[in-house]
């Protein structure tokens, strides 16, 4: 290959990341990934999973970016366990699948660059106040624990400019304490919140959080009425699938969600609603999932309340799309296009025709 054509290829290989191994603490594995021209920059991923509780505190290389301490039967984690050379620049920490029942309030106080934290599949029953204030976290997984009551303020992080993705699913949460108004504390920047499969009987007060995604799947919500989503005007994706009990949708229950684009109500065979007015105010909604709900046939007025709606899922593999018929041309004075639903069984790829709901 001529040299002018070979040079760009060599530069690409030099800049791309390359993975190698390096000497590591006995039982652990250290994988080095190099970046930059001539491998001038490197980061190390240290895997010390499945070795047992004796592994901590474990010394790690100075350039460690991610540490995996999962499945070690750890019963406690405190500041001394996560201290030493290499920990100060740690960006990712995995403590999942251990036996943790509590956390020290200062456990992560020295992890000033920590962005991703996984404490899922433990036995945590409570979270200390200000547990994460020292770290610029963007991703926290606390799913599959035994949390019962959680304060939103506990997730105020060091970097308030960074969006936080928070997973609290599969706990025992019956109450989510709201962020206190006028307390002088910065509002947590939670943008994605997964509260699926907890014990919430009402939509929690999440006002003023910059939420874009919210899942309440599998909770025993009794009703969704006016004011349930107050202060969540920026929410774009809401999932209320597989709710337990006999959930009821009241008229105007979603009216605060002017920016909502996707609404999932699937898997609710006992869901009761009060007509098309339930969806009043959802002027930006584009996708609606009603599969497994029995909410068919849909009222003819539904499309009038959902002017931006593009598709509805109404059953297994059955999807309906908005169809606008202009009618005769030229259009008669005072007439308007006719809007209908065109439904297709995707398993058979056969059109059922408009208005078959």
Automatic annotation (TrEMBL):
- Sorted alphabetically, which keywords does the UniProt record give? Developmental protein, Glycoprotein, Leucine-rich repeat, Repeat, Secreted, Signal
What Gene Ontology molecular function terms does this protein carry?
Answer: cytokine binding
Q: Please tell me whether the keyword Secreted is annotated for this protein.
A: yes
Tell me a GO cellular component.
Answer: extracellular region
Name a single GO biological process.
anatomical structure morphogenesis
Q: What is its main location?
A: secreted
Give compartment(s). Answer: Secreted
Q: Does the keyword Cell membrane apply?
A: no
Assembly notes: Interacts with FZD4 (via FZ domain); competes with WNT2B for binding to FZD4, inhibiting Wnt signaling and repressing peripheral eye development. Interacts with TGFB1; the interaction contributes to regulation of the hair cycle. Interacts with netrin. Interacts with CCN2.
Q: What is this protein called?
A: Tsukushi
Record the organism.
Callorhinus ursinus
């Amino acid at each position: 290959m001529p040299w002018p054509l070979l040079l760009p290829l060599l530069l690409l290989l030099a800049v791309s990341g390359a993975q190698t191994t390096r000497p590591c603490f006995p039982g652990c594995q250290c994988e080095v990934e190099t970046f930059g021209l001539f491998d001038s920059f490197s980061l190390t991923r240290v895997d010390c999973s499945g070795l047992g509780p004796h592994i901590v505190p474990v010394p790690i290389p100075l350039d460690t970016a991610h540490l995996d301490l999962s499945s070690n039967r750890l019963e406690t984690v405190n500041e001394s366990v996560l201290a030493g050379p290499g920990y100060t620049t740690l960006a990712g920490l995995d403590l999942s699948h251990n036996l943790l029942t509590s956390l020290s309030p200062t456990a992560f106080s020295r992890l000033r660059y920590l962005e991703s934290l996984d404490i899922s599949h433990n036995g945590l029953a409570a979270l200390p106040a200000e547990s994460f204030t020292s770290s610029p976290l963007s991703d926290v997984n606390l799913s599959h624990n035994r949390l019962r009551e959680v304060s939103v303020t506990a997730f105020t992080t060091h970097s308030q400019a960074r969006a936080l993705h928070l997973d609290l699913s599969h706990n025992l949460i019956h109450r989510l304490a709201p962020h206190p108004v006028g307390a002088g504390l910065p509002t947590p920047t939670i943008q994605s919140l997964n509260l699926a499969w907890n014990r919430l009987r009402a939509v929690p007060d999440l006002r003023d959080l910059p939420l874009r995604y919210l899942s309440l799947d599998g909770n025993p919500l009794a009703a969704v009425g006016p004011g349930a989503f107050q202060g969540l005007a920026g929410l774009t994706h809401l999932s209320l699938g597989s709710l337990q009990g006999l959930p009821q949708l009241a008229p105007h229950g979603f009216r605060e969600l002017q920016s909502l684009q996707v609404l999932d109500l699937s898997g609710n065979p006992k869901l009761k609603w009060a007509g098309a007015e339930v969806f009043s105010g959802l002027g930006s909604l584009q996708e609606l999932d009603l599969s497994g709900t029995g909410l068919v046939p849909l009222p003819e007025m539904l499309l009038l309340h959902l002017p931006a709606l593009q598709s509805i899922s109404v059953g297994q593999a059955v999807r309906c799309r908005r169809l606008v018929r202009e009618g005769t041309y030229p259009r008669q004075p005072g007439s308007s296009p006719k809007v209908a639903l065109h439904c297709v069984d995707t398993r058979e790829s056969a059109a059922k025709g408009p208005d078959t709901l």
